[in-house]
Amino acid sequence: MESSQSGGRQRRTALSQINVTPFVDVMLVLLVIFMVTAPMMDKGLDVNLPQVKDAPAMSVKDEPLTVTIGAAGEISIGKTRVASVDKLGAVLIQATAGNKERQVLLAADGKVPYEHVAKTMAAIRAAGIEKVGMVLQQEETAK
Fold first, then answer.
1. How many domains does the chain have?
2. Beta strand extents in the chain (DSSP E only)
3. Which of 7, 54, 71, 141 has the maximum number of C-beta atoms within 10 A of its C-beta?
4. pLDDT per residue over 90-113, tens digit each?
């Protein structure tokens, strides 16, 4: 700081720079804290859970059913053959035991006409099954 004397009075000039030292100190402290606590984040707390007798069994999610359409148009659910698309709905209801939340995967041969695949999907939907997925084979890329 400069001070000049003119007439017995001191005149101070304003600082033209911001002091960043406290800011850097705080940031370094935070960095050290995060570096120390980060390894502890992966570890959980060891908890002794209470023991229960006669606990109700939890339901296990069912594996999805796979409906397969072969190259000749034959339909099967898992290893069970279905006579036609018209009978697919009844067989699906029986296979899912009325569970409309069960997922059904549709695997169709690449040579099957799209019309046949669409009719099969419609039959699956008509059986009340909302979760329908398509099984696809990923193309191999030439190297």
1. 1
2. 3-6, 9-12, 65-69, 75-77, 80-82, 104-108, 132-134
3. 71
4. 888 888 877 778 888 888 888 888
